[in-house]
DNA sequence: CTGAAAGCGCTAACAA
DNA sequence: TTGTTAGCGCTTTCAG
């Protein structure tokens, strides 16, 4: 009556072999006799058998599931970065026939890694403990978007310093000297590095760094408004803004336009991300710094896979960022 | 040496009780003596013990993980609907201390439900078989966004017919008679129903349905352009467009503006979703139909939870849609 | 190449 | 209230 799932025992009985043979068929088909392989194969199909992942895992096998841990900061589901990472990883895993176990956490640290074969961290923001625990339990893992120098762990990042440098240098090369930087949340490594890149470009070009030109907006659009109001409140004479994300750059444009200023004629803008949602914001193509998120995701999966298969060692990869020139910057 | 995870045996030994007592502590703490409870609690903390979900599940328990299955249609990761559902469900589950197992599939049907206690389907698009299998295996489940009349399964939806009707009626009430409808992918139930709502509103108001006014754009922005080109190619005299999503509505606005037409002065537009990304598209607040996605998500989780706890029966919930009036429609 | 059997960590009778 | 014990479905020695 009950349409229960069939088990390895059912298959073994029906096919007239032992469960060990069925197990071998599942894990290493070439290790059993042709004849048995055919019999088992037929029976598996007939009974629509598929192994219980948890039984398999308990017996020392693999579940075929990777974990993806995403810090649940505010607005994470509106974050281009987070969504691209989920998308990229989901896409690669699918082609590998591996399932995804997504864990988005806020505050608490309750990821139970027991179901997964390995873990990918999409950034580490306040969850160093989680990472440490995973490493301690010897679960293979890879970190994206943060270089964790103090730990023996694989990572995939871009050179955010260079990204910030490129963006700022591009503005400088167009004759801008008074450049505002809207930074992301400085708790986050990539935001700090982009800021450092900005400073470094100024220094190299003998431009004085003005603290009043550096604002922090948490990567969210909401806070950008406040930053811009501050910039405009004093005696402002800046001619360009470099924002640490395209979303923030878009908000800068909106703000400037609401103020009656033309972009880029009166204010040039550079963003970060190459977010397709903002490519053509209010008809302005935003010049931006592209990070190859899909490549990073795919790279992370591959490293993890090899780690799980014990084929490779810890590896720290850094991709180069790329300046994408559109039309939100003019010379002056 | 090896920092292995501690097991229930370690805890039992260390605390001087049997593993059964530890198990009881985990699942029903009030059933053991105060004294033992304290001892076990202390030991659990000391050893940083947490049960292996798969061992638990194999022994007939729960994993504390719900599955969320999302059809991986093109652009799913840019889909407001999909992201809101993930967000809403993630948010509710987090407060319940339940983990999420996200499965986004394309083509193949390889969801292995064995790790989860229950499953939520975010829409059914071409994966009826998956749903049927889950039901057959007696795994508790809930479907969002599609009413599956022919199956005994819980569902949470909105009244999409009514949504389409409201949108169209609003345009008619503003004096529009020539109304284009940009439908979503008609493989998807909600798109069909919105279209029916549109037709019904026209009929009720004695306006003839023109096939040339009905275009299908797959919910994606790309196809909208083609639809609009078609609309404009013939002798067009439509004055309004009702799009089955805000994203598509935004694209309609872009297209019209590129054509040199003013929105809403020359063309009124109504969308669907109340997508905050499009709230203020090119400075135009889009009038739209809101579906309470967060509520739907939360409702789905609650139904599933009760199903798993065997406290409730199959339930089909239909939420009402709500017209949100902004400024993309003018009378004529 | 195959089968028998041990055991992974846990839950849930059952007996005490 | 507690401990003993029999599995849950699978992988993996170890003999044959």
Key phrases:
3 domains, homodimer, 4-stranded parallel sheet, alpha/beta, 434 Repressor (Amino-terminal Domain), 332 residues, elongated, 6-stranded parallel sheet, Rossmann fold, DNA-binding
Q: What features would you describe in this structure?
A:
Two copies of one chain form a homodimer. Chain A has 332 residues and is an alpha/beta fold. In chain A, the strands form four sheets. Chain A has a six-stranded parallel beta sheet with strand order 2-1-3-4-5-13, with helices on both faces. Chain A has a four-stranded parallel beta sheet with strand order 7-6-8-9, with helices on both faces. In chain A, α10 links the parallel β8 and β9. The mean pLDDT of chain A is 89. At the A-B interface, α4, α5 and β2 of A face α4, α5 and β2 of B. The structure holds a DNA duplex (16 and 16 nucleotides).
- The count of helical stretches of chain A stands at 11
- Helical residue percent of chain A? 40-55%
The assembly state of the depicted protein chains is: homodimer
> Pair with the most extensive interface?
A-B, 45 and 46 residues
Number of domains of chain A: 3
Under the CATH scheme, the architecture of the largest domain in chain A is: 3-Layer(aba) Sandwich
Helix/strand-derived category of chain A reads alpha/beta
Order of helices and strands of chain A: HHHHEHEEHEEHEHEHEHEEEEHEE
The general outline of chain A is elongated
**What is the CATH superfamily classification of the largest domain in chain A?**
Response regulator
Q: pLDDT under 50 segments of chain A (min length 5)?
A: none
CATH topology of the largest domain in chain A: Rossmann fold
Return the average pLDDT of chain A rounded to an integer: 89
Strand content of chain A: 15-25%
